[in-house]
């Protein structure tokens, strides 16, 4: 069954980014729980920012899970990415992600690779960049398997990566990997820019999609843009997607309204 989740950012450098809650894990858990969310998705500066014991206590108290942990702080704070032409920088990027996989794994939550995928250009051809990315995903995917969690790879829109921008291309790319432990993130905001038909794209990802960023066309809460959610939700159900629909949305006009609009849409499309 599809579960609901909402994002919390603990990364000051990401202020203004598409995360709903900004005032710490305890605040996010309390609000998420009050509104009936199943889980929180955590965007943290590093693997050791969050006190594990405190987080376990909060999850129990508020009856929540961790849906996923983001790795973008490796890029935002340290400029690290998996297709850096410099091998030692690539190794640092992988170390950063392995530590996030460890952190998430403690809570049965996968790590997400979005901006950490980098981009091709300069002396690095697209093919060479994709080879580096494949090598990294094979290694990190198998590492995640040992923690019993998948690794989530996110195609982004053309303004954020030039590697893989559609679900269909993401599926073809995953088929070339030796690991079977990498799943795709279907982010509806990125898809709204890149896909001809969002529902059809979800269908093309059948069996390969492990996580959904559930947001509207303008990256605001569901219902605050012009996305037609009915066919998208129907495709998610039809393809037996059973991961999280997580609100990676701007807190516009504020966090509370964003959370309320999200859970309202979630109930409408997945629980009625
Ligand atoms: Mn996303």
From TrEMBL:
Gene3D superfamilies associated with the record: Divalent-metal-dependent TIM barrel enzymes
EC number(s) recorded for this UniProt protein: 5.3.1.-
Database matches in Pfam families: AP_endonuc_2
Keyword Nucleus among record annotations: no
Domain (Xylose isomerase-like TIM barrel): residue spans on this chain: 30-265
UniProt keyword terms in alphabetical order: Isomerase
GO molecular function, one term: isomerase activity
Stretches that traverse the bilayer: none
Name recorded for this polypeptide: D-tagatose 3-epimerase
Taxonomic lineage of the native organism: Bacteria, Pseudomonadati, Planctomycetota, Planctomycetia, Planctomycetales
């Amino acid at each position: 069954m599809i579960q609901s989740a909402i994002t919390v950012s603990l990364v000051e450098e990401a202020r203004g980014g598409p995360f709903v809650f900004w005032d710490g894990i305890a605040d996010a858990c309390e609000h998420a729980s009050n509104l009936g969310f199943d889980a929180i998705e955590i965007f943290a500066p590093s693997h050791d920012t969050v006190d594990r014991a405190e987080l376990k206590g909060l999850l129990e108290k508020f009856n929540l899970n961790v849906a996923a942990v983001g790795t973008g702080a490796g890029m935002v704070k340290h400029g690290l990415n998996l297709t850096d032409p410099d091998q030692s920088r690539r190794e640092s990027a992988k170390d950063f992600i392995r530590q996030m996989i460890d952190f998430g794994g403690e809570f049965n939550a996968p790590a997400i690779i979005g901006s950490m995928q980098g981009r091709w250009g300069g002396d690095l051809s697209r093919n060479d960049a994709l080879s580096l990315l494949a090598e990294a995903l094979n290694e990190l995917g198998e590492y995640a398997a040992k923690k019993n969690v998948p690794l989530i790879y996110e195609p982004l829109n053309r303004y954020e990566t030039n590697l893989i921008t559609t679900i269909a291309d993401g599926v073809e790319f995953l088929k070339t990997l030796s690991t079977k432990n990498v799943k795709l993130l279907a982010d509806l905001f990125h898809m709204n820019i890149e896909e001809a038909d969002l529902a059809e794209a979800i269908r093309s990802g059948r069996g390969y999609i492990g996580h959904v960023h559930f947001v509207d066309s303008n990256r605001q809460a569901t219902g605050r843009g012009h996305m037609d959610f009915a066919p998208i939700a129907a495709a998610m159900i039809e393809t037996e997607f059973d991961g999280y629909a997580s609100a990676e949305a701007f807190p516009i006009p504020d966090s509370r309204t964003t959370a309320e609009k999200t859970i309202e849409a979630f109930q409408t499309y997945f629980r009625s």
